Input
Amino acid sequence: MSAQPLPVLASERPSAEAVFGPEVPSESDRAAGFRAEAPRKRSPGRRLPPWLKKPLPRGNEGFFTHQLLRELRLETVCENSRCPNLPECYSRRTATFMILGNVCTRPCGFCAVARGRPLPVEADEPERLAEAARRLGLNHVVITSVTRDDLPDGGAEQFYRCIVAVRRVTGATVEVLTPDFLGDWRAVARVLEAAPEVYNHNLETVPRLYPRVRGRADYRRSLQLLAFVKRQAPHIVTKSGLMLGLGETREELLEVLADLREHGCDCLTLGQYLAPSLRHLPVVRYLPPQEFAELGETARRLGFVHVASGPFVRSSYHAEEMVSRPHDR
Ligand code: SF4
Output
C-alpha cells in the first residue's frame, strides 16, 4: 500500500453538541424525550464543518417513539450509539431495535454502547419488539444486537425469534444487522432460517485499522460471513457498511469495496465517523459531501445494487429505501 493515512487531528474531534445537539436540551429535544444531561466540556479546537450541522425536526412525533420504547422496555442502537440522526428518525417513527441488552462484550474503539457484564436474555423481548413495530406502523423493521460472545450461539436464537415474532404481528420486511458470531456458521444459519429480507453485517473500516477500531473482529471472517449468507440464501439481500474518516486511505477503501463485491455483497452504506466522546477514537478527517457522492458513484460502478453514501448515512438510515428501491442504478 503506497498511500499514507492522513495525520490524526485530535482537535477535529466533534463536540458533544455535534452529536447530541445543543448541550441544554431545546424544546424539540425535550419533546423528543431526550435525557437532560449535565453540561459536557466542549471539545477544544476547530468546530464541525458546516455540512455536519443538522436542524432539529419540528413537532413531537419523536416523543411518541421515545415513550413507546420506554413503555415496552426496548433498547435502540439509535440511543445507545448516540446516533446523530436520532431526532430525525424518531420523529419519522422509525428506530433500529437493539436486542440482547444494552451491554456489549467487545471493546470497539468507535462505539458508544456500554461494555461489561452482559444482561440475561429476556424471553419476552421478541413479542415486545413486534408490538413496538406494530404500533410504530413500521413497513421495514431493522434489528441489531450488542455482541454476545458470552452466549453459546452468540444470540442467534433471539434474532430468529424476533424475526418470527415481527412476521407474526406485522406485514413488515425485516433487516438484521448481526455481529460476526465469532465465525459460527451454524449461528448465522439459524438467523437465515427465519428468512430476513436483508442481512447486514458491517465491515466498519479497512483491515489495517481493525486492531484499533474493531479489536476482536476479523476482517476476513466478516467477509466470509457475507459470502456464507449469499451462498446459503442467494435471494436474501446482503449489505455492509463502513464509517469513513478514521484514517483509511482511498486505495484501502477501494480494496475493501472490491472485496465486498467479490464476497457477494449487494448493498453498501458509507457514512462519516463521529466520535461519540473524547474517550473514543478521534476523527481523522471530515469528508465533504461531494467526496461521499463521488465514492458512491465509484461503488455503483463496482456493481453494488444500492449505495447510500453521505456524511449522515448510517447502516440503518432510511433502510426501508433499500428494500423498496433495491435497484439503485
Ligand atoms: S440512522 Fe439508524 S441508528 Fe441512527 S437514529 Fe436512524 S435508525 Fe437509529
Observations:
- The first strand starts at residue 75 and ends at 76.
- The pocket of iron/sulfur cluster is lined by residues 77-78, 83, 85-86, 89, 94-96, 314, 316-317 (CB under 6 Å).
- The beta strands are 75-76, 96-99, 103-104, 114-115, 140-145, 173-177, 198-200, 237-244, 267-272, 306-309.
- Residues 1-45 have pLDDT under 50 and may be disordered.
